[in-house]
What does this fold into?
Amino acid sequence: MFDYLDMDIDERTGVNRIHLDRPERRNALSGALVAELKEALALADADERVRVVGLAGRGPDFCAGADLAEVQASVEEGVLASLREAEALGELFTLLRKLSKPVVAVVHGRALAGGCGLATACDLVLAAESARFGYPEVRLGFVPAMVTAVLRRNLGEKRAFELMALGDPIDAGEAARLGLVNRVYADGDFETEASAFLEELAGRSASAIELTKRLLYGADAQSFEAAIAAGARVNALARMTDDCQAGIRGFLSKAERSKGDSKGEKA
It folds into this structure.
């Protein structure tokens, strides 16, 4: 179905694994790969079996960034060609944020430049201890422009500027300390621990996760009062979902049983 990635859905857990599959090019983001990834994410979002998407890379690295041969070709074609290529990547980052289901970057090896941007644009990032992250574009006289909107939200302005302006790679531990990575696992346990995390997330209420994601990202440009009002609307909507009603009934039933047991002990 795809030439530059593969997709596998575990119907038992609801985890959809998408792998970038250009290991000979360190999974560089060509135009074709970006287009396929957008298609795969849209398919996952529409598939009722899918509850969580895990995004990883084949070969030794997660993703080395943009395909520089294509970047050079677009420069030779002119500014409009460069703009179209950049906008396609921007659409991918936007899609990750708009997707109703959580997307988790599962990073081993190197995630650099656009590859680091791709991981940063996901909702959560899991990293092997030996993974490396960075935005080295400045060393080529280039700018990590597309990821700026996400990076400053994740790290704050000063940390984001330092990463982008110096272009130095950082290890997984430092990335976690800065807030770029959520969890770091030992290399030997990485696949097992990452799979367990994805399955645990998939076990959460799908409606609650979707509403949480929508509310969190929707607050970006809102005033405090508007964000509180949006939270109230989502709160009311969440109460009406089947998951929430089942959860409340289960909690109240458990509390009632516990109350009855307590009375029996006193008698």
User: Anything to note?
Assistant: The beta strands are 5-10, 15-20, 52-57, 103-107, 110-112, 124-128, 132-134, 170-171, 183-185. The chain has eleven helices and nine strands. The radius of gyration is 21 Å.
